């Protein structure tokens, strides 16, 4: 059991730390602040949701934690603007894959499994995840014109 836990301990610490950070943001009233901040904004709620999630993803590293945190932070924006919750969920999903880099376990798994250098992983994997996230956002914005 010790050997198995050693292999996943760092990932568990990263996810646990990210989850704790999420709770600090929620308990500290950041969700209400963000809702109030963007309630008077002319920026699309879809872009706001994507941007918040992408920023959390880059800072926290975990897609799961970024998604959960962003969902709690933008909930008040959805209520205030009447935005389509389905499109907001899609935007959060797209933002959660943005710019995978060194603070995410997936980055290191790709690097090691494919025998890439750090630079090669940034140039391939981080670029790919960024393109996927931006493409997802653009697709959602196009669909929002028809829904």
Automatic annotation (TrEMBL):
Residue spans crossing the bilayer? 7-26, 46-74, 86-110, 122-143
Q: Which coarse location class applies to the principal site listed for this UniProt protein?
A: membrane
Membrane topology term reads:
Multi-pass membrane protein
Pfam families assigned: GntP_permease
- Spell out the subcellular localization from the entry: Cell membrane
Which InterPro entries does the entry mention? Glcn_transporter
Give the UniProt keywords, A-Z. Cell membrane, Membrane, Transmembrane, Transmembrane helix, Transport
Q: Please, which domain of life does this record's source organism belong to?
A: Bacteria
- PANTHER family on file: GNT FAMILY GLUCONATE TRANSPORTER (PTHR30354), HIGH-AFFINITY GLUCONATE TRANSPORTER (PTHR30354:SF22)
User: What family, per the record?
Assistant: Belongs to the GntP permease family.
Q: What is this protein called?
A: Transporter
